[in-house]
Amino acid sequence: MIVVADTSPINYLVLIGHIEILPYFYGRVLIPPTVWEELQDANTPEQVRFWIARAPDWLETRVLLQAPDASLDFLDRGEREAIALAEQLGADRMIVDETLARGEAQRRKLSVIGTLGVLRNAARAGLLNLPEALSELQKTSFYVAPELIRSLLEEDTSRLKKA
């Protein structure tokens, strides 16, 4: 399975202590050079910079064979490169959070999942406590509509009652 990630999901999964979910589901995760740079940026949380400085073997940087096309210029560099890399490799999945980038990836027929989807899948697999993970996520700068959190928690409660 070929999976390409943008900066945001890696950043937030590191911050909440659940980054190891990615190799559990996907084995290897590929990122473009700009995502690697963003994860090392001085403005990135120290915990994330520490993690990326000792990046695990399952995270691999891949160079783009050609620059992203100009139609992606409305996105930030990391998002542009992640979409371009996913297209270049014929990725099976793209992990991205930002609304505009998700929409563009879907428009380009890429299969998309975000941090919340990864957490939901991990809870379904019994890898984490979803209410706790969402609580930790809400302590970061991650923005999510309260209605979506409520919906995820209700779904999780219903799933647990049936188990």
What would your notes on this structure say?
- By secondary structure, the chain is mainly alpha-helical.
- The protein has a single domain, classed as 3-Layer(aba) Sandwich (Rossmann fold).
- It is 55% helix and 9% strand.
- The protein is built from 9 helices and 5 strands; from the N terminus they run βααβααβαβαβααα.
- The chain has a 3-stranded parallel β-sheet with strand order 1-4-5.
- The two termini are 29 Å apart.
- This is DUF3368 domain-containing protein.
> Helix fraction?
40-55%
- Compute the number of strand runs: 5
Question: Secondary-structure element order, as H and E?
Answer: EHHEHHEHEHEHHH
| Unreliable spans | none
Kindly estimate the percentage of residues that lie in beta strands according to DSSP: 5-15%
What is the quaternary state of this protein?
single chain
Biggest sheet features: 3 strands, parallel
Q: Helix/strand-derived class?
A: mainly alpha
Distance linking N and C termini: 29 Å
Overall CATH architecture? 3-Layer(aba) Sandwich
CATH topology type: Rossmann fold
Radius of gyration: 16 Å
Q: Quick one: CATH class?
A: Alpha Beta
Number of domains: 1
Count of helices?
Answer: 9
